[in-house]
Amino acid sequence: MKVADIMTKEVDTCNPGHSLQEVAAKMKEINVGSIPICKNEKLVGIITDRDIVVRGIADNLSLESAVSEILSENMVTGNKDMSVEEAAELMADHQIRRLPIVENDKVVGIVSLGDIAVKDKSYGNADIALDEVSEPAEPEK
């Protein structure tokens, strides 16, 4: 099965100038945990709900701060022709829960661990990714 068969095709994005509050509100509105950040339709980063909390609020940034201050720029991306197994392995290798699917630097979809678990009937692929992504971390004290 190909990623194109299970990916979410209509992906809402924000731009680097959107505020933390605007992006958080968009996440709430569409019920997602991450949003790709695009400039002139080109993917430049991704921001997660965790980024907003850990890199934004915990570091005392204003909710009006631009997401460009905290977004993850070194993204791992996939393409729509890769197999679901390849996507699951890529997600496991990089310990990520969501994989933007890109074509010519433009977001054409996104795949989450949930998509793999629910839409890929082989189920083994979700286990591959989930085992690695959900590996318990030792808290830093």
Please give a structural write-up.
- This is CBS domain-containing protein.
- InterPro entries: CBS_dom, CBS_dom_sf, Diverse_CBS-Domain.
- It comes from Planomicrobium okeanokoites.
- Keywords: CBS domain.
- With 141 residues, the chain is α+β, with helices and mostly antiparallel strands.
- It has a single domain, classed as CBS-domain, CATH 3.10.580.10.
- It is 37% helix and 18% strand.
- It is built from six helices and four strands; from the N terminus they run ααββααββαα.
- A two-stranded antiparallel ribbon has the order 1-2. A two-stranded antiparallel sheet has the order 3-4.
- Helix 4 runs parallel beside helix 6 and helix 5 packs antiparallel against helix 6.
- It starts with a helix and ends in an 8-residue tail after the last helix.
How is the topology of this model organized?
Layout: H1 3-6, H2 20-30, E1 34-39, E2 42-48, H3 49-57, H4 84-94, E3 98-103, E4 106-112, H5 113-119, H6 124-133
Antiparallel strand pairs: 1-2, 3-4
Features:
141 residues; alpha+beta; CBS-domain; two-stranded antiparallel ribbon; 6 helices; 37% helix; globular; CBS domain; Diverse_CBS-Domain
Strand order of the largest sheet: 1-2
Topology pattern, helix = H, strand = E: HHEEHHEEHH
CATH third-tier fold name: CBS-domain
- On the 0 to 100 scale, the average pLDDT is 87
Kindly name the structural category.
Answer: alpha+beta
Task: Using the CA coordinates, give the radius of gyration.
Answer: 15 Å
Question: Describe the biggest sheet?
Answer: 2 strands, antiparallel
What's the architecture, going by CATH? Answer: Roll
Shape: globular
Number of helices, where a helix is a run of at least 4 consecutive DSSP H or I residues = 6
Query: What is the name of the CATH superfamily?
Result: CBS-domain
In the predicted model, the low-confidence regions spanning at least 5 consecutive residues are none
Total count of strands = 4
Beta-strand content: 15-25%
The tally of domains stands at 1
